[in-house]
Design goal:
The structure is a single chain. By secondary structure, this protein is α/β, with parallel strands linked by helices. It folds into two domains: about 140 residues, Rossmann fold; about 110 residues, Nitrogenase molybdenum iron protein domain (Rossmann fold, 3-Layer(aba) Sandwich), CATH 3.40.50. It is built from twelve helices and ten strands. Helix 5 runs antiparallel to helix 6 and helix 6 runs parallel beside helix 12.
C-alpha cells in the first residue's frame, strides 16, 4: 500500500538539467560526497538526512547517517527515510538503483557535473530545489570569478609537461576528457598522455620514460605514493630536478566548490618547475 501511495502521489520527478521544485526540499538524501559539499556550501547541509561513504566535508558531514557506498544503496532505507529530494550521482551510483529510486516516485536530481564550469550550474540548480537561491548564486558567482581569474593568470605562463599519476598498481593516468585534465589545462600544463585512447588509461613506466615529463603529480594516497619508486629513474626531468608533488585528491577529484583549491594547488606545483 505504501508503495502504491508513493507512486500515485509523487508531486515531482526531476532529472539532470530540469529544475522545477514545487516547494523547497527539507529532507535530502545526497548520494555522493560532492553533492554533500555543494549542499553545505549553499547553506542547507543540515537538511541532509542520509548520504554515502566518504562524504567527509565539511566536518559535520561525518555525522550524517550512511545508507550505501561503492557496493550500492540501501533502497529500503530510502523508503524508510521518505526524503523530499534524492540527489543521485549518474556516474557513481548504479544505474539500476537510480532507476529504482525514480520508480518509487521520489523527487530526483542527478548531480554529475562534467566540467569545471558545470559546478556553478549545479549549485544554482540545488539552490532552486532547496530554497537557497540567494546563497547558491553568491557561491556560484564567486566560484565562476575565481575560475576565470585562474584561467587568465595562467594563460600566458610557459607550458609544462606533466604526468599525473592517478594510481600506481596498475599505473594509471588521465587523458583528454578527464576531470583532472581540465584542471591541468587551466594551469597551462601539457599533459603528456592527453591523447590516449581512454580518459583514464593504464600505462607503463617505460612510456613515462619516453614522455620525459617535467613534473610528476600524485594523489596523497599512501598506496599511490609508495607504489612506484621514481627515484630509480633519474633520466626523467621531473625526478632529476625534484619536481614530484603529492596533492590532496579530495580537492582535485571532487566536482564541488573546493575544486578551485584543487586548481590552485596544481598550478602552484607547475609553477615550481617553470
Amino acid at each position: 500500500m505504501r508503495l502504491v501511495i508513493q507512486l500515485c502521489c509523487a508531486a515531482l520527478l526531476i532529472s539532470s538539467g530540469a529544475v522545477q521544485a514545487s516547494k523547497p526540499a527539507e529532507k535530502i538524501i545526497a548520494l555522493s560526497p560532492h553533492a554533500v559539499e555543494m549542499l553545505y556550501a549553499i547553506g542547507v547541509g543540515d537538511k541532509i538526512i542520509a548520504t554515502t561513504d566518504h562524504a567527509d566535508y565539511p566536518a559535520d558531514a561525518n555525522n550524517i547517517p550512511r545508507i550505501g557506498g561503492y557496493h550500492g544503496i540501501q533502497i529500503e532505507r530510502v523508503l524508510e527515510l521518505n526524503p523530499d529530494l534524492v540527489v543521485v550521482w549518474g556516474s557513481g551510483n548504479k544505474a539500476e538503483e537510480i532507476a529504482r529510486i525514480k520508480s518509487l516516485g521520489f523527487q530526483v536530481f542527478d548531480s554529475d557535473p562534467k566540467s569545471l564550469e558545470a559546478v556553478a550550474d549545479e549549485l544554482l540548480a540545488l539552490g532552486e530545489l532547496t530554497g537557497a537561491q540567494t546563497q547558491a548564486k553568491a557561491v556560484a558567482d564567486d566560484y565562476r570569478q575565481n575560475l576565470l581569474s585562474l584561467r587568465q593568470d595562467n594563460a600566458s605562463k610557459p607550458a609544462v609537461d606533466v604526468f599525473y599519476q592517478l594510481w600506481s598498481t596498475p599505473l594509471m593516468t588521465v587523458a583528454k576528457n578527464s576531470w583532472i585534465q581540465q584542471i591541468i589545462a587551466v594551469c597551462n600544463g601539457s599533459n603528456v598522455f592527453v591523447d590516449s585512447d581512454s580518459d583514464y588509461p593504464q600505462i607503463s613506466i617505460e612510456s613515462v620514460l619516453l614522455k620525459q615529463p617535467q613534473v610528476i603529480l600524485q594523489s596523497q594516497d599512501e598506496g599511490n605514493i609508495l607504489g612506484v619508486n621514481w627515484q630509480q629513474w633519474q633520466d626523467i626531468p621531473a625526478v632529476k630536478n625534484g619536481h614530484i608533488y603529492q596533492l590532496n585528491a579530495d580537492i582535485l577529484h571532487r566536482a564541488a566548490p573546493r575544486a578551485i583549491q584543487g586548481v590552485e594547488v596544481l598550478c602552484e606545483a607547475l609553477d615550481k618547475a617553470r
